[in-house]
Amino acid sequence: MEKRQQQQFKYTSFWKEADDNILFWDYAPKTKIDISIAKELVKNRLEYSKGKLMYTFIDFTNVQSVTKEARDYMNSPEGGLKGILGGAFLSNSIVSNVFVNLYLKINKPSIPAKFFTKREDAIFWLKSLNKH
Fold it and tell me: I need a labelling partner for 111 at 20 to 30 A (CA). Which of 17, 71, 89, 131 fits?
């Protein structure tokens, strides 16, 4: 699928692939997320989306680590969940798989969130949420 309206930031890039409510993003290689980077990521996403509520497709493959403080911030309605209706995480990395699954089980986000290893499954799931 073609990337539309792509915008690059220091730690991530955002884009759309269709005229729907799904925001795609990935991380720069070997990203280590601490609280300051987490806040910058949220600021960048809100800037890109112009505050519009969206579903997110997050390719987590390049993330090396996330601090507990950053995880807590990313799971808060006034932080990382601000403006997000639901999120699909994608990764083929064993480290990312363990981290994301653990995060989803422990933190239980207040929005629909699910982990995938196949891109098409993640997109299908987000589109099904978007229909409701």
Answer: 17
